[in-house]
Amino acid sequence: MKNGLLLILYICFTQYIYAQQPKGFDAGVLFGLNATQIDGDAMGGFNKLGLRGGFYVQRNLNKKMAYRIEMAYSQKGSKRIYDEFGAVGGIWDKAISDYIEVPLLLKYHAYKKIDALGGISTGYIIRKKVENYTYGEASSDFFRKLESSFIIGVSYPVNSKWSVEARYQQSILSVAKSHFPIYSSYTNFMIHKILSFQLIYKLQQS
Asked: Quick check: 196 and 52 in contact, CB under 8 A?
């Protein structure tokens, strides 16, 4: 229900922008790969890979700046690694946390073909799962429904239609509830950290 409402609001917003400010407007799709970790799970490294995809609308403010709003599906979480001695730390083997996100970004033409971008994002969790290969499936109830995060990155246009982007994203507040008894020996403060690499394809420009 909430995801459907977000989609309706997003479509209405993009149609409003296109109707009111047609000049300097463009829209398109984005898809790429996340490398993720969770600070606070007693593991390190961006070991869990996930997909990221969605669509965007962008409005040019001037020759140097533009603002963009996106709606994207983003797979996050963390994954334990093993060496020749067995598991390397960690609370679980894998934590899966998939979100529908709405980032609001400001884009700045920094140098030649390189653009810098930054902003904030709100995400709603639509899938959560914790896997522990010794004890089976553990509780994932500690995940909060909403996540707030900041984003910084760079963008490089390959041609008039395609661009490549690299981003760093991090939760602003803990994604874990204040109390989850199964993992009480560890910290209750957990944040997502994501390295994203994605392709942007421009569908429409005016």
From this structure: yes
